[in-house]
Amino acid sequence: MNRIAAIFAGALMLAPFSFARSAADENAKDENNRLQNAGTVMQEILDIPDDIPQDLLDKARCVVVLPSVLKAAFVVGGSYGRGTMVCRTGKDFRGPWGAPAMYALEGGSVGLQIGAEATDFVILVMNNRGAESLLHSKVKLGGDASVAAGPKGRTASADTDAYMRAEMLSYSRARGVFAGVSLEGSTLRPDNDANHRLYGPDATAALIITEPKYESPESGRALVHRLQKATPERKM
User: Fold this and answer.
1) What is the DSSP letter of 183?
2) Most buried residue, 40, 109, 193, 213, by most Cβ within 10 Å?
3) Distances from the Cα of 216 to the Cαs of 137, 198, 213, 229, in angstroms?
4) Do residues 121 and 183 lie in contact, with contact meaning Cβ atoms separated by under 8 Å?
5) Per-residue pLDDT reduced to its tens digit, 190-202
6) CA–CA separation, 29 vs 27, rounded Å?
7) Does the CA dihedral 107-169-227-113 come out positive or negative?
């Protein structure tokens, strides 16, 4: 009887550790799913010639992809969605695309009544200041960094004052309809917990994006490869 009681007590002591490990595994699975979904979104968008202008892709320092943001989040506020940011490596963000860092889009109501069950967002970061502002802290779009609804069409002109001044250009896709959309009033920040789960406890968004020792997990390679194929080097 004492032996049975000891086994039972031991099981009770180990249960919290087993639960914590199970929760951590599940969270890591969620992060990998986010990366895979982001790769799928980018693949589908770049396969359609009339979506993002090629010259904008060629000039972008970073690309933020937020797959399947639920409409309900816009009604109740709080967390809009979670995704990833991929940046070009090297000095002045001119090298090949690097490892993806995890990011979250948050904020109160910003008038985004998209009218769909889920919406994908893509944000192009167009200059060094915009990219560097996102590496370390939360950024309010339209406040800390200028943002504009991006133009559509591979041959669309991106040289107007509005697009040239904007640090970020934002797009949405709902029910297959792709369009520029303003995200002013929301915030974009590094998802530190997710980055730790994917890359280790010392990993930060800034280190993942700027240090060559960080390599993309397998789940993020399709996203990085698709961007590299579409725009292998940044143009001035």
Assistant:
1) -
2) 40
3) 22, 9, 10, 16
4) yes
5) 999 999 999 999 9
6) 5
7) positive
